[in-house]
Amino acid sequence: GNSVTQMEGPVTLSEEAFLTINCTYTATGYPSLFWYVQYPGEGLQLLLKATKADDKGSNKGFEATYRKETTSFHLEKGSVQVSDSAVYFCALTGYSTLTFGKGTMLLVSP
Amino acid sequence: EAGVAQSPRYKIIEKRQSVAFWCNPISGHATLYWYQQILGQGPKLLIQFQNNGVVDDSQLPKDRFSAERLKGVDSTLKIQPAKLEDSAVYLCASSGRGPEAFFGQGTRLTVV
Question: What number is the average pLDDT over the span A3-32?
Fold first, then answer.
């Protein structure tokens, strides 16, 4: 079946540092890939997506590239802010079901 | 465009009681999901509807959980009787033509 593996957190960074959160996946066929963000006490918000190999999703300074050869979809941001502190979930959808990773907590200090 | 609406936001019940959650998806979205998110974990799919038909309920504990989506719009998720391990956030999501799903704010259930 489909599965998503994310790096464990928490990831602790200072403001303006570079962020990478690793995500790899296992899936049959050609899944679409997503990053969702969850702020404390809130539901999940779609951060970015990529629907085919070599696509780059981007939003709010975050980027991730769909790498089929390495089955990866790593999340990056060049300069994080305190307001980026949240839990980040990598996810994929195959033919129908949306499957999530366990999430990575990001803590950004001033 | 209105988002996914869920109610209530919070619920505290005693074990062995019953509880129901309600979800109203984004207008026109055919697919509706219910997820369970235990603290510190990723969301786990409980049930997925396509219109008013069930696509996947393989991880739904059917001895105590039930869900319905009458007329292919609103949905309710029920737990009867609740156990302590059911304490979690219950998330509803919907999707339309695209592959992405849009989530409501969730219902935080505490079973004491």
Answer: 94
